[in-house]
UniProtKB/TrEMBL annotation:
<dbReference type="InterPro" id="IPR048824">
    <property type="entry name" value="Cas3-like_C"/>
</dbReference>
<keyword id="KW-0067">ATP-binding</keyword>
<keyword id="KW-0347">Helicase</keyword>
<dbReference type="InterPro" id="IPR054712">
    <property type="entry name" value="Cas3-like_dom"/>
</dbReference>
<keyword id="KW-0378">Hydrolase</keyword>
<dbReference type="Pfam" id="PF21802">
    <property type="entry name" value="Cas3-like_C"/>
</dbReference>
<comment type="similarity">
    <text>In the central section; belongs to the CRISPR-associated helicase Cas3 family.</text>
</comment>
<dbReference type="InterPro" id="IPR006483">
    <property type="entry name" value="CRISPR-assoc_Cas3_HD"/>
</dbReference>
<dbReference type="GO" id="GO:0051607">
    <property type="term" value="P:defense response to virus"/>
</dbReference>
<dbReference type="GO" id="GO:0004386">
    <property type="term" value="F:helicase activity"/>
</dbReference>
<dbReference type="GO" id="GO:0046872">
    <property type="term" value="F:metal ion binding"/>
</dbReference>
<comment type="similarity">
    <text>In the N-terminal section; belongs to the CRISPR-associated nuclease Cas3-HD family.</text>
</comment>
<keyword id="KW-0051">Antiviral defense</keyword>
<dbReference type="InterPro" id="IPR038257">
    <property type="entry name" value="CRISPR-assoc_Cas3_HD_sf"/>
</dbReference>
<dbReference type="InterPro" id="IPR027417">
    <property type="entry name" value="P-loop_NTPase"/>
</dbReference>
<dbReference type="Pfam" id="PF21384">
    <property type="entry name" value="Cas3_I-F_Cas2"/>
</dbReference>
<protein>
    <submittedName>
        <fullName>Type I-F CRISPR-associated helicase Cas3</fullName>
    </submittedName>
</protein>
Amino acid sequence: MNILLVSQCDKRALTETRRILDQFAERRGDRVWQTPITQAGLDTLRKLLRKTARKNTAVACHWLRGRDHSELMWIVGDARRFNAQGSVPTNTTQSDVLRDHDENDWLTGEDIRLVATLAALFHDLGKACEAFQMRLRSKQKLPANLYRHEWVSLRLIQAFVGQDDDASWLARLQDAAQMTTVNWKKHLKQAALRDGEDAQARGNKPFTDGVLPPLAAAVCWLVLSHHRLPVSNDETLTAARIDTGLCDLNSQWNQPFDNVTVKEAKPYWQFPYGLPCDDKLWRERVADIARQLAARQSAATPWLDQPYPLHLARLTLMLADHHFSSQTVKQGWLAGKEDETAFANTLSHPQKNDPKHQGRQFNQTLPEHLNGVARHALSTARALPDIARALPTLGRHPLLQKRSADPRFAWQDKAYDLAASLRERAAAHGAFVVNLASTGCGKTLANARIMYALARPDTGFRCAFALGLRTLTLQTGHAFRDKLNLGEDQLAIRVGGAASRELFEQQAKDAETAAEATGSASSEALLDEDSAIHFEGNPDHPLLQQLSHDPRFNALLAAPLLVCTIDHLTPATEGTRGGRQIAPMLRLLSSDLVLDEPDDFSVEDMPALTRLVYWAGLLGSRVLLSSATLPPALVQCLFDAWLAGRAQYQQHRGQPGLPLDACCLWVDENGSHAANCGDSASFAAQHLAFARRRSDWLASQKPRRTAALLPLTGVPRDEKNLFEPLASLLREQAWQLHAANHDCDPHTGKRVSIGLIRLAHIDKIYPLARALYAQAAPAGSRIHLCVYHSQYPLLLRSAIERRLDAALTRHKREALFSLPDIRARLDGSPAEDHLFIVLSSPVSEVGRDHSYNWAIAEPSSMRSLIQLSGRVRRHWPEPYETPNLLILQHSLAAWLGQRPAYCRPGFENGNFKLKAHDLGTLLPESDYRHPDARPRLLPRADLQPEYRLVDLEHARLQADLNQTHMPAQRRGESDQARLCAASCWAMPRASLHGALQKKQPFRQSHGEEWEMVVLPDEDGGIRLIRREEGDKKWEVRESDNNHLIHPISDDELLTGQDIRPWGNEDYLTELAALAATMDMEDTACARRYGGFSLRVDSNNLQGWHFHPALGFCQKRD
């Protein structure tokens, strides 16, 4: 390609960019270069420019595509020096005539700045107490604090405020005579607020209405919560008490301790080194901020009822404290001798190992720390309105604008056009989008195109795509990277563990190598014609400067597109663990949000998901929900949460007085619809109308899957004798499905099918697999069995997924027979029929882009059946009426008499029980005969959750998501509030403490789990090691648990004729190959890639069976 490079750099940046550009291109002027270049060369040039970029860097690259046509490819550095097409202005002035960048839509931005700065000046007052200073000076490990320094700080402020209103105590802050250590200590003693020492303090709850004026209450809350939100240890908290929980807050919420003696409490209320009041600079800053607050109306603002400014003030304080506390000690910081000075902190672990600080222990004095954090809070609050403009964005992107060539995806163009037409309105009112397109219709790319269409082209596109599954996240991220030609600086992929991502990346490299080996790489375009403009943002922005030292923050914030597991964003709403809230909050504040398959989360996880959507609305994000099986209760719940957040946002951002009238959009492969919805009822009506239209359209489509119920005839109802007859039944049914749904090998004529047997629970997979291996395949056939679930060491699970991805990506049906693995198995056996069977847990039903010939499913819920059916003939859109899906008429739990039976996974629980568990009575034939999303889209008018499986799902979701009160007729008492997913916005003050997060955690573990790793031993075998957290943050403790592993030999497992594992990776062989690829030593490689989690029954710990073809399974007598 032929490119033109234009530099608008200044000062030293101009010299540096000239040095780099001169190596790649010829000058056509003082600031212009031109050259032909390859894509690889251009990528290298851009990386070099980005690596050396500074605030005065500004380089635009144009692709000269013809005599009269050029396209802007990218800008490195300050994009404001060019327009959207990359042109340079004819003339410029340094006078900001319009001052449009100084103006922002933050209506309460100044209030946030002042309150956060005042809280910063007070936030660590409690560190002056004797107990904290002794802790800093102690060489030994001391027991936990009886009262944390945040609580001591709060009591000092509360005592100083006393009975005054906000105007009065702000005036006293400006009076130097009032601002002395003696005076503050006198107020503390007179107020009798010394917990553990003053009897009256125990009953004094600072946030009870009337105790503190509004501004003082806000400052006290910020001080108390600047590390973590307060949480009660009372497990009996009701919804009503959580709603008013702030009024019940006492010292126990900050640090739970009972029966504290006066002697033990005294050191927390003694201040041997005085208070920061003795520091002149601190007093002057406090007086200055108090003067500014007193002059504003914010002193009368009901702060605790306004989550937007309050939480952003907390974010400002946390970020300032986090950054300033990380600063290394500088010469001259100490204001006095160590034995006469109150300190705020000691050197961090890395700083102590630095030779420059050898022999030192203390870092910042307390006054210096408070002043420094206040200074940073001031600059942080001023920088917040500009954060979205300062972060990198994705500008013009031809592939996101490109019309679909395939008629199957033409619906995406209509959705894109409709979204683009709503762009200006969505900018003012926000946007809430629901994508109900069927599985396999390209929803992933459509979601990106819709959100891109809603964004302004001149400012660029930023969006976070949040998913539930690790594998789906990696798959989606790489789909974006490949289909949209995005680089690592434009797209970030974040999953739970770095090891998972690294293995996935290695698989991608292996696939590229294979493509080169087969010659298919040469079919790829030589030039990248569809690259996007990348707006670099402003790396010198104050906030980004504060975060630049932490790569985890940058990974979450810097890239315009973020594809991540949802647990990277949920900390934005939690606030119960240190600074983990900062980066995800900034992400939501600066980008839109897409939730992929939100209905895949369990009902227990829905409150946390709802909190995330509420916070997305609160922070101004547009939101898109994407799933073919979204039930109306869930859609309504998430819209209500987003709208409640949006209402708070519009009170403090945008045009004053703008009515709440959200821009809503519904899309599927049949069409798109937009409406303005300012309340819950109007949205519900619009969604119902769209769902009905979609349901009618689905009913008119010719089917691709035909299902039938499979009775468990001849299978005993006791677990010990269950699996051998069950294996025989499933083997026979698999053979019949294979006979009706196979493909023929074009080389040999052999019949081949790939089928899925899905079981609900891992503990049933192991004995069923052993029973299958003990039985012979039908005459003339060979069965290749792959067991797939989560209880494998990571590298083995990755190998299984690599094999399945290769075989089940079947857009071209004949490609299967070219795979070396499949080819070798077909040619190595005389059998004419080959059944490739995947015996899997529910991990196979969502997220994998796999296409099976047939499937047998153990039922859990209607949703799981619909999702699993979407894996059958997924890549073949032609109508097909041959039966290819069997559903067990009972779940195995129901067959064995367990109650509730359809749970974990499923919707049955103690409050929602089915009267019967036979699908013949629970499911009408119309619901399962040709499985599609209709049963999930429209609940029946008269739900019967005790008698119908589909009704159970709708009733449970309606109750647990949207019902905020328990009906009196069900309880025999008056209506009272109850906890549900909607509680996060229905109880606004609940966001000021952590009780909801504790009662409704995200992904609560049911039972104990151990983190394990499989290491090689010196004798050529393996060792099972348990990993635990050590006493310190950076420590990991390992214990040998080799006595708990019970290996199974091949001779013991493989006793049936003509049934063998489909892939039988030996752990040590896979480890050696991976170690060689990664250039690592075997043991180090195993520590990184051999980890996994195992569930533990502490009351009956007998260990685990293990075979590479089966994974780990708990041993039971």
